[in-house]
Write a structure and sequence with these properties.
This is ANK_REP_REGION domain-containing protein. It comes from Rhabditophanes sp. KR3021. This protein is mainly alpha-helical. The protein has 39 helices and 5 strands. The strands form 2 sheets. A 3-stranded mixed beta sheet has the order 2-1-5. Helix 6 packs antiparallel against helix 7. It starts with a helix and ends with a strand.
């Protein structure tokens, strides 16, 4: 159903409820009118967006209708609906007022479900209010209300669970407890109490696992991931990803993409680069991944590639180059997604690889030769430690920077900048004195305004933000603090830097040791780096596929990837990979052809050589016949690679096979050897062969004849004829079969004798001449009404039942068409079909 259809349906439902309400009012049925009005409001709330304002009006109308009817249950639900709408508009004070009324009416009718949910909502609204106002008392109130709600729930759990209506509205007590405990964990996190937060979330996860509530488990794992630091984030990311993968609804597709991406980030953080690259490459090529995630994956893969390559070339350069390279890597690691505004739009913080940055900056410090370089390295370390929330270590580093500034008479701007860093770290150390810190921030602002005439700079912006953050976290906020929070918030919004001020700060940055150092990768395009970064990944993907398909049948002929690769002219490198990863060099297809058979058939000498070196059976025997492209059979089964090479007259291939001890004594089903086929090829093609080649063929024939004689084997003048699939016609129909019996039997005997005789030509010609009993006589007798004899010669021939010999005058002509192989049948284990092939 399209959006327009859905809107039309909604409008009809709204109109229907409006009419019902109006009819009830005409009848002065206030109860029904109020119920329709509330139902209408709830329908509009579900739609949300622009319908919320109208929903709010309907709830207020409903309250007016029920005000004098003393209907506390309906009033309670109306006030809860109004509270949710106010929270949606971020008017949390109004939401809290409405939820108080909701609780009040619930208590008046002793509805523990309404009361318990109201207490839960009050805690939630206070947490949301804190995230908007940053008033610490509001957050503490949320904590207290969570605990009150949990206590109330424990006292009334049995009442809730025994009431079906209450269970239908808000779930069983255990599920409500899980939701409250999850909220409690979120409050603890905002209070900077990560251990208590994790304990609460893990308790919820245990319930979620038992109840198979995978969404609840995922949300809790996502919360834990948010406050874990350093290497601990990897385990949290794994749990989050695994939980998310169990969510089957399509609405969670974005969550799945996000959790998978963050898992890759954490693998990168701990420098498990191969695993991280595999994740990012899979996402990069996945059609499900959005464009923004593809771009993020590309950024990380390029970063990993540059990281590894920079380390490779680093030892070939001087200390200055090494120092600046470490600085470059550190900067890239912590600024990887600086310009990705989509994170903020999604409500996420861009991931930073501060651990990698810190490691690089520390190595940078070890390579510094000047005080200027040392100050820069210490500043980088201090900033990174602060980002990692290691405030005491950061405080100590910035104190060292301050000492260097004093030692070298730094200007007042730089001194104040360093003091701001020190104060920011100091204010976040648990043991700090809040009152003293407030005084320090106040003095720092005054000093800045005195020295720099209230100029709007990055430094002032930083001081204002740090001061505001500190005041929001103060446990003892006073009325003056609230006023200052409002003032600082306003000042931050109007702190717009002019171009002159930026130039001033830029000059200071150069004094601090900034440089325009670039290495070879800075000049390369992102696209070219991505090609290099994915090269190994693509190769690995191919290898993984090779391993998965090891000796697996990949086509209807029963062949493996090794068979297919052996057919290719450029298949040698591929074959090397396949064999390296364990492919069976002697794997057979349905016709018992091996990869060596394919290499020989296609004339790939080097491929055949490599296969033989890897242990290929040089005398492997195929079951299939060889036929031409015109489907003419040229040899029956029992063919070896040497026979096929001889049929094609491939001298280099024959020499290679003989080098690897191929047998010249083997014969196929027609009792022909490789020598017979080589002589036949030579005789048939002698007119097209030059003198040098003739000499080579004659030498090779002589060599093979000598080899057979040494084995005590007979050397024929010519090859035996090909045995056709059907010696007689598939079905010979004849009347008065007795008259042909002796003639047919004689011809058949002559044909079979020719198969084993060295005097092939004469006997074949004799058989060709014996055709007087063929079509004429058979066709003449078809009109007779005497019994017919049907002979099917696909089965072994019985001489007594044989009627006549089929005309095979085309045997030799067909044989001259060539002997490239082709598949005629690829059905395995089917005795009714004979396998044949050519290529």
């Amino acid at each position: 159903m399209g959006k327009r259809d859905l809107k039309d349906k909604l409008d009809k439902e709204i109109l229907s409820l409006e009419r019902k309400k109006e009819n009830a009012l005409k009848k002065k049925d206030i109860q029904s009118a109020g119920s329709y009005c509330r139902e209408l409001a709830e329908l509009l709330v579900v739609e949300g967006g622009d319908y919320l304002k109208e929903a709010e009006e309907r709830y207020l109308e409903c309250i007016e209708l029920f005000k004098n009817k003393h209907n506390p249950e309906d009033l309670a639900y109306c006030y809860r609906g109004l509270a949710d709408i106010s929270a949606e508009k971020e008017d949390y004070d109004q939401a809290l007022e409405y939820i108080e009324l909701n609780e009040k009416f619930g208590e008046s009718i002793n509805d523990v479900s309404i009361v318990q949910l109201a207490k839960h909502q009050k805690a939630l609204f206070n947490l949301q209010k804190y995230q908007k106002t940053w008033n610490i008392q509001t957050l503490e109130k949320a904590l207290w209300q969570c605990k009150v709600a949990l206590k109330y729930l424990a006292e009334h759990a049995s009442t809730l669970d025994s009431n079906k209506k209450m269970v239908d509205i808000g779930g069983r007590a255990r599920r409500r407890e899980a939701g409250l405990t999850q909220l409690l964990g979120d409050v603890y996190y905002q209070l900077l109490l990560p251990k208590q937060a994790e304990a609460s979330h893990k308790k919820v996860i245990e319930f979620a696992k038992l109840s198979k509530d995978f969404e609840l488990a995922y949300r809790c794992y996502a919360s834990i991931y948010g406050y874990k630091k350093g290497k601990d984030k990897l385990e949290a990311a794994i749990n989050m990803k695994n939980a998310c993968e169990k969510l089957v609804d399509k609405k969670f597709n974005d969550d799945k993409t996000r959790s998978k991406f963050l898992y890759g980030i954490e693998l990168t953080r701990v420098k498990r680069f191969d695993e991280a690259n595999a994740i990012f490459f899979e996402m990069f090529e996945d059609k499900v991944s959005s464009k923004k995630y593809k771009e993020r994956c590309r950024k990380v893969m390029v970063f990993i590639y540059k990281f590894n390559k920079r380390l490779e070339v680093m030892n070939r350069n001087n200390n200055y180059y090494k120092m600046k390279t470490y600085e470059l890597i550190g900067d890239e690691a912590c600024r990887l997604f600086d310009h990705d505004d989509a994170f903020e739009e999604d409500g996420d913080s861009p991931p930073v690889l501060d651990e990698i940055s810190l490691e690089c900056y520390q190595k940078m410090l070890d390579l510094c030769d000047t005080t200027k370089q040392t100050r820069l390295a210490l500043s980088c370390i201090g900033e990174t430690l602060k980002a990692l929330e290691k405030y005491e270590e950061a405080f100590n580093i910035w104190t060292k920077v301050r000492e260097l500034d004093v030692l070298f008479n730094s200007d007042q701007f730089r001194l104040l900048e360093t003091d701001a860093k020190i104060l920011s770290c100091q204010s976040k150390i648990p043991s700090h004195n809040e009152r003293a810190t407030k005084s320090s921030y106040s003095k720092m602002l005054q000093e800045y305004n005195t020295l720099f005439a209230n100029r709007e700079t990055n430094l002032k912006h930083e001081i204002l933000e740090n001061y505001l953050d500190f005041l929001r976290r103060c446990k003892c906020q006073e009325s003056m603090d609230k006023v200052m929070i409002e003032k600082l918030s306003a000042d931050i919004k109007i702190n717009v830097r002019s171009s002159d001020d930026n130039d001033y700060e830029l000059n200071l940055g150069q004094d601090q040791g900034g440089s325009d150092f670039e290495d070879e990768f800075e000049e390369s395009s992102e696209r070219s780096l991505m090609v290099l970064a994915t090269k190994k990944l693509i190769e690995k993907r191919e290898i993984d596929k090779i391993i998965r398909e090891k000796d697996k049948i990949v086509n209807a002929n029963g062949e493996t990837r090794l068979h297919e690769m052996a057919k290719r002219k450029d298949g040698l490198e591929g074959i090397k990979k396949l064999i390296k990863h364990g492919y069976n060099v002697n794997a057979v297809d349905y016709g018992k052809w091996t990869p060596l058979s394919e290499a020989v058939s296609h004339g790939h000498v080097e491929i055949a050589r490599f296969l033989l070196k890897c242990g290929a059976n040089v005398d492997c025997v195929a079951d299939e016949d060889i036929i031409t492209d015109e489907s003419t059979k040229v040899t029956s089964g029992g063919v070896t690679p040497l026979m096929e090479a001889a049929q094609k007259g491939n001298i280099p291939m024959i020499n290679l096979l003989l080098e690897f001890k191929a047998s010249v004594g083997r014969e196929n089903k027609e009792h022909n050897s490789a020598l017979d086929y080589l002589k036949e090829f030579f005789d048939e093609n002698i007119s097209d062969i030059g003198q040098n080649e003739r000499d080579q063929y004659q030498q090779l024939i002589g060599k093979m004849e000598l080899m057979r004689k040494r084995l005590g084997l007979f050397v024929k003048d010519t090859a035996n004829p090909v045995i056709p699939d059907t010696l007689l016609s598939d079905r010979v129909v004849a009347k008065k079969a007795e008259k042909f019996k002796s003639q047919g039997e004689a011809n058949l005997a002559m044909l079979l004798d020719a198969t084993y005789s060295g005097s092939r030509k004469k006997k074949v010609n004799d058989i060709k001449m014996m055709t007087s009993f063929y079509a004429e006589e058979v066709n003449d007798d078809l009109d007779d009404e005497e019994d017919t004899i049907a002979i099917d010669c696909s089965e072994p021939i019985d001489y007594e039942e044989a009627d006549e010999v089929d005309n095979f005058a085309e045997f030799r002509e067909n044989q001259e068409q060539g002997s490239s192989r082709k598949r005629k049948s690829n059905v395995p284990n089917d005795s009714s079909k004979k396998n044949k092939r050519c290529f």
